[in-house]
Amino acid sequence: MKTAIFFWVKKMKYDVTVIGAGPAGLAAAISADKNGAKVLLIEREDKLGGVLKQCIHDGFGLIKYGEKLSGCEYANRSIDELMKRDVSLKLRTFVSKVTKKKDGFNLLLSSSGKLENIETKKIIFATGCRERTPKQVAIHGSRPAGVFTAGLAQYYLNVNGQMPGRKCVILGSGDIGLIMARRLTLEGASVLGVYEAKDSPSGLTRNIYQCLEDFDIPLYLSHTVTRLHGRNRLEGVTISKVDEKMEPINGTEEYVSCDTLIVSVGLIPENELPKTLDVPMSKYTKGAIVNQYYETLVNGIYACGNALHVNDLVDYVSESGEEAGKFAAIRDKSDAETIDVNFTSDFGYVVPQKIVKDSETATFYFRTSRIRENAVVKVYNKDEEIFRKKYLNLKPPEMEKIKVNIEDVSEIRFVMEVSK
Amino acid sequence: MNMNRKLKNEFGNNVKAKLIDDKVILSGEVSSWDEKVSAGLLVAKQGSRVHVVNDIVVKNLVEAKTIVSSINDKKLEGKKPDVLIIGGGVVGCAIARELSKYDLDILLVEKEYDVALHASSRNDGMVHPGIDIKPGLLKKKLNNIGNEMYDDMCNDLNVKFNRCGQYLCFTKNNLLIPVILTLPYFNLTAAGRAHFVGRKKLFNKEPGISKDIKYGLYFDGAGTVCPYGLTIALAENAIENGVAISLDTAVISIKVEDKKITSVQTNRGEIYPKMTINAAGVFCEEIAKMAGDRFFSIHPRKGTNAILDKEAKKNINTIYTSVNSFNGDKKSNHTKGGGIVSTVDGNVLVGPNAIETSEKENFDTEKSSIDNIFKKQKKAGTWLSGSDIITYFTGVRAATYEEDFIVEKGRNTKNIIHSAGIQSPGLTASPAIAVEIATILKNEMPDIIEKTNFNKYRNSFPRISEMDEDNRREYIEENPDYGEIVCRCEEISKGEIVDAMRSPLRCDTVDGIKRRARPGMGRCQGGFCGPQVAKMISEEKGIPLNKVRKGYEDSYILLGEKNEI
Amino acid sequence: MIDKTFTCIVCPNGCKLNATVLEDNKLVVTGNKCIKGIDFANNEIFNPKRMLTTTVKTTFNSMPYLPVRTESEIPKEKVFQVMNVLRTTVIKRQLKVGDIVIENVLDTGINVIATMNTEEKRYG
Predict the structure, then answer these.
(1) Does A352 sit behind a cis peptide bond, omega within 30 degrees of 0 on the bond before it?
(2) In the CATH scheme, what is the homologous superfamily, with its name and number, of domain A9-131+266-333?
(3) How far is B212 from chain A, CA to nearest CA, in Å?
(4) Which of B203, B414, C40, C43 is the most buried (most CB within 10 A)?
(5) Which chains touch B (3 or more CB pairs under 8 A)?
């Protein structure tokens, strides 16, 4: 009789696997563990904290801790908390593939010397975001060294201690661009100016004030960089004024001599893996479409933090991670009906985009699509107003958060009233 | 003379043509580069062996100097190779590999820091069926021969090649009969077969194609390859077979005595080759001139392509382009129509356009070029969206006025062979050009013998992300670095990057690694992996971080430690 | 008499403040929507302070530069002077978040503290 030898390789099975150990992932892992799940946290890099590792500047944690911490300190608090918990951790591990199984998912993980499969009931994507590149904003001309995205320049300077440039032009008034303007100035570089294609700054007012005005760095609104010059290292850029559609105006070109261009033109949620699982994405946020439990339209897949939508404050990122972690741990399939959250074009976006009709309240995050003064945000259930709040100032860079009673709603609609 | 009458009509008395031996020499003065080019085109006859040598001066035009490495040493001083190949493009490298089958001492010099830095990396990677080239032209012949060599060559060199085929798409019903009538012509003259495809089948094969398309022609001979990947592979295999490649090496002058090249002066010393092969791309006219053998002129023509995110790939499986008017074989189109190309690496390429230029090394891109190619290609690819663009590039084609290849021995100087005027479809034709050059060389040097130990296979490093799981695991367990992913967009491991740096041809720049192993090729364009790659170069090559280059000389990414400068 | 305009950053309103210091050092602020604007202008004119965050060289390979900050805000005019001190500082011992890197930097009465742990182990 032939004997067959069966190798039974037992795969590790987790309740919740969190991908990405930035602020969202850390919070999600901690919270899922607190709520009784067997948790795995996977991080591509060799340290926890995600982009906060290079955010040495302060201003983090005002909401969560009531303190002004640096990004590193903020991360450290979460890491401290994680260390107290029983979360399995895989660092320097890359999720190569996710496959849907009958009662969960299979993850193919690649790390130094090892390719392994693990199984998990639920996944939380906390993969953060990536920066838009110079080519994505149609900068032409040559392709020299000395052109960086703001986050890349920040990494080189803060983590490697290397100067990315001496005579810098910054394109985009996003917060990282502003922070880098100050950072480079403090380290002895000269920042010739920050150019912004929009007619209002993209970054927080606080950063305009403390990062630019403090150092007399000029901010040029309705201007953009259209061309790079130099073959080896950057030698200069062409600046053009732009019209209301942000198209460069012919004849307004101006040459600025510089050795470095730092581009801070926006962030895009990183969702390559969920896309392979056919998780529907929102065209407004570029992140997954989720319900109030941070669950995507694919059962068992959750999303939080900047992978879901780009937040202005890390506190909100942690908050969404915490919620996603909790619900991934405790929630079972719900039979309750799901309804859409609609909004007018006065809003940049509203998250969540779906509501499962089994809770009393839901927290919404939204951004205005343009600067508004004295605006009233109203939420309707059909024709019935269920929420209203007055805002003296609404600015696209600043996210707003509201809690709405959603008992017995059948349709949710966000409307903005603007007094003339 | 007829030529001069034509010129007079166009340019008055400013431009003159003179037939000397077998070339038409143009002289005079015009006010713009475009005028100079149109004068050349006016008197040139496509495919003619009587070439136009364009000596017309353009008023107030300062021609850009050839960019040469600042290195000045004697590394090659006194070298006496049997064959000196000038130019490390796909043609030069294909020639190097072909000649390495023979017992010859071969030296290839390339003025840039890497091979394939000009037209060979700056094209859409199409392996052409040759449908828009007039029969009878040398480039038609070499295209068709080269096209058929691709499967074996790429297989031997471990280079990805996808014979995906190409669709010409039509929107106008009134062209239906003429299009069908061209089938026998294409089947007779193109590489591969031509097929008529009705609307239904077309949408079946290419669901992303515009709904305006009514029918199309499918050419199964068309394919795609990574053009610089192929060039690098050819160079590496040539090195493995004994060829010496000297980078950062520019030819400065050539000594000719009694119609024979006696020595070639470079920035790295004087070389004394028995035979010189001119494969200098846009600089082939300059090399011919230095060698006392200038019988043609190059009018550079630049073209721009856009590279789209992998997500765009869902709209295209092959290559397609929409055709509005149809001339069959009657007229050659310099732009080759361009098209939308699904690349072997999973991206989508759109382009190129064609613009005459006096600047051989100006690879600047322009917004207008991107706008134009998008406008044109949107006819077939209505899905094309600017927001999918991850990057773009410009290449410069080395066109002669006769718009044909020149592959022949020197007309005046004896020990030189030219491979000149190699524009599109030069990539497709390159293996055939190499064979042609070898044939000419054998005629000139009849006593050369074939090596017995030529190894046609090139060992390239593994592509981890493309492997099946078991295979991948085996590699990772053998070398842990294959498990460590550095580039997340393209899923490239540390092991592959180290392999690229240790491959036979020098590779010590971020762009060089990018062309070999692809970190930074993806949608983030190196935003995440850039610092890791820079650090790996610094460690592998033993240089400080601030000496790590993007690519070109002095293209340092960082300026030094912050406290020290 | 000093005349200064700036944007109040206390709350998202971002009032455009106009502050005038009269000869008797009395401050007149206009453009503010609330009282916080006056305090803000007062501080910015008479005693502007800033938090300084930067990195300091270490002797550790795993972390060649350590992120640090001033424990609280320092006078604005001292920012570059403190930067100069930190530029020449080298950390040779292991530190944890909150540990003092420099005590009472430039007699400001404020310490410079580490904002990250130096040892890598801690993070994985």
Answers:
(1) yes
(2) FAD/NAD(P)-binding domain (3.50.50.60)
(3) 27
(4) C40
(5) A, C
Catalytic residues of B: 128
Environment class of residue A144 by beta-carbon count within 10 Å: exposed (0-12), middle (13-18) or buried (19+)?
buried
Residue in C with minimal Cα distance to A45: C124
Among B residues 372-391, those touching chain A with beta carbons less than 8 Å apart = 386-387, 389-391
Distance from CA of A397 to the nearest CA of B (A): 22
CATH class for the region spanning C53-123: alpha beta
Residues B316 and B207 in one domain: yes
* Nearest of B561, A76, A56 to residue C70 by alpha carbon: A56
- Read off the pTM: 0.94
Distance CA B428, CA B149 (A): 9
CA distances from A119 to A13, A100, A113, A200, A329 (A): 5, 10, 20, 48, 15
* Residues B480 and B378 both lie in one domain: no
Q: Domain ends where: B400, B417, B447?
A: B400
Amino acid at position B503, single letter: S
The residue of chain A with its CA nearest to that of C121 is A47
Residue B184 structural domain: 163-221+300-400
What does the alpha-carbon distance between residue B125 and residue B141 come to, in Å, rounded to a whole number?
Answer: 19
Element (H, E) at B127: strand B126-127
Query: Measured between CB atoms, which of C6, C53, C123 is closest to A48?
Result: C123
Separation in Å, CA of B499 to nearest CA in chain C = 24
CB pairs under 8 A between B and C: 4
Partners of B491 on chain A (C-beta within 8 Å) are 94, 96
| B395/B515 same-domain check | no
Tell whether B563 lies on the interface with C, counting CB pairs under 8 A.
yes
Interface membership of A208 toward C (CB under 8 Å): yes
Is there a single domain that holds both residue B381 and residue B473? Answer: no
Mean pLDDT on A377-396 = 93
Residues in chain A: 420
CATH of domain A335-420: 2.60.40
A416 DSSP β-pair partners: A377
In B, minimum Cα distance to A96 occurs at B491
CB B437 within 8 A of CB B87: no
| Chain C contact present for B565, CB below 8 A | no
| CA atoms within 13 A of residue A209's CA, in its CB half-sphere | 21
**CB atoms A46 and C14 under 8 Å:** no
Q: What is the pLDDT along chain B (565 residues), one digit of tens a residue?
A: 588 999 999 999 999 999 998 999 999 999 999 999 999 999 999 999 999 999 999 999 998 999 999 999 999 999 999 999 999 999 999 999 999 999 999 999 999 999 999 999 999 999 999 998 999 999 999 999 999 999 999 999 999 999 999 999 999 999 999 999 999 999 999 999 999 999 999 999 999 999 999 999 999 999 999 999 999 999 999 999 999 999 999 999 999 999 999 999 999 999 999 999 999 999 999 999 999 999 999 999 999 999 999 989 999 999 999 887 665 444 444 444 679 999 999 999 998 999 999 999 999 999 999 999 999 999 999 999 998 999 999 999 999 999 999 999 999 999 999 999 999 999 999 999 999 999 999 999 999 999 999 999 998 899 999 999 999 999 999 999 999 999 999 999 999 999 999 999 999 999 999 999 999 988 888 888 999 999 999 999 999 999 999 999 999 999 999 988 7
Give chain B positions within 8 Å (CB) of A111. Answer: 483-484
Residue C58: list chain B partners with CB under 8 A.
none
Residues of chain A positioned with their CB less than 8 A from the CB of C110: none
Q: Distance (Å, rounded) from C-alpha C95 to C-alpha C91? A: 9
Closest chain B residue by Cα to residue C57? B563
Tell me the C-alpha distance between A394 and C14, whole Å.
Answer: 11
